[in-house]
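Methods: example folding runs. The two proteins below were folded one after another, and each record is reproduced exactly as written to the output file, sequence line first and structure-token line second.
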Amino acid sequence: MADTNTADVRPKYNIRFPSDGRAVDQDQEWAEIGVNGNGKLRRFRFHDYADLYEHPGLYEQIFYDELECQSPQVVTGLLGEVLASESLDATDLRVFDVGAGNGMVGEELAKLGAAEIVGVDIIEEAAQAAERDRPDVYDKYHVLDLTEIPPAARSELADRQFNTLVCVAALGFGDIPTRAFAEAFNLVLDDGWIAFNIKEEFLAEGESSGFSRLIAHMTNEGTIEMKAGMTYQHRLSAAGEPLDYRIFIARKQRDIPETWMKEG
């Protein structure tokens, strides 16, 4: 697969972050952005991904240029380090990239050398942006609700025999609920690699997303074998404050049972 880099050709946008961003929860962050070349600014909420993906390079400029997001590089980099420590070759990876968005994580997986990368996202605009911006990264890109996978799509995904699941900056805010993550997890072969990150607040006992409980089950009851983990700065908030996330790199031991999915 080609090493695709759109940084040199993407347009530059006028972005103005709110002065009161400090009081805004992460999933409600926004900025005013000029996208039409007429000098007028339009408000974009950061989690309205379909609107962001419509404009080439806008997502990258907001999160990576302005807010210094480093999660695609850090998560895939740590996965690569763990593979190297076990004398394993990334060219053997058959990856399911969950919450793939416009392909920035897939691009890093391609640089790592993954043999096969299949993306999935719930919105069509993500698939369109990935095809527009990084057309050579994915072997296939599915637009699916992972909580309701059609039989034909499930069969196709199972036939891929994934040995790696990667999910970066997509958990905890309702975009990918616990059941969707569990369904994706269960499409990976036993002994496969699991690499994901999540904001630290979603690991606190009693938090509302269900991920704290699910991850506790997975680590305490032998569903995964932890190989590496670290807390790091995912990006800056719109107010310039650090947002800390936790990375998990593990090997799958067995499927997540249906009873755990119902708990989420």
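Second run, written to the same file directly after the first:
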Amino acid sequence: MIVAGYLLAVLIGIILGLIGGGGSMLTLPLLVYIFGVDIVSATGYTMFIVGVTGAVGAFSYIKNGWVNLKNAIAFGIPSMLIVFLTRNWLMPQIPMVIFQYNAFQLTKPDFIMLLFAVIMVAASMAMIKKSKPVVPQLIAPMNLKMIVLNGIVVGLVSGFVGAGGGFLIIPALVIFSKLPMKAAIGTSLMIITANSIVGFSGEWGNHQMDWNLLLSVTSATVIGIFVGTKVSTKIDGANLKPVFGWFVLLMGIYIVVKETLLK
């Protein structure tokens, strides 16, 4: 099972390298269901893993000029602010028992996992659905209002469940800034890295963290993103999104069933 966990970690990196988002959706269930990390801690672990992996992936895109700094700043600043507020203020305010009725009890870990499952289903729909082609432009007017709004939404998603939010960032950059797909992926990886660093900063100094596990899983995803970015020059990641979307949808449904009916 542990070997399978590390193979999945490599796969997460490959997916991030190929399509720039969505792969991080698998990191939280990987940590919780295979490596046995508690849900609240796993959201912090996810940020570290996704952040380091995203930074490695972003480097090759920066080197090739496929990062739009203006969009990264416009999207990243509100996103990072919301991530910081969510991790350091909002998350600690959530009680351990959110709702209770007779024998039924909705705990904080249950809430986070169910919220994550809902996000997974939403992400899968975005991946499966064929989007209308957008004419890319390296220099185009930016819809600042929509970019900032999406940055806030991504900040909330990242802050609550640790996922990078690439499935939201990439379409926003393509639609509202008319970026080419490769530029959107590179810019997305840069934003994901920044968000993850800010989010994980609140976990720093936590001596209960399993650094051996954290660094070993991160190493596996980094290997994967090297493979993914290399393969992305030969394969159009957009063609793989629907297939991966169906997989994410099944995972989301599984989590809902496991956290409700199989408790």
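Comment on the second run: The two ends are 21 Å apart (CA to CA).
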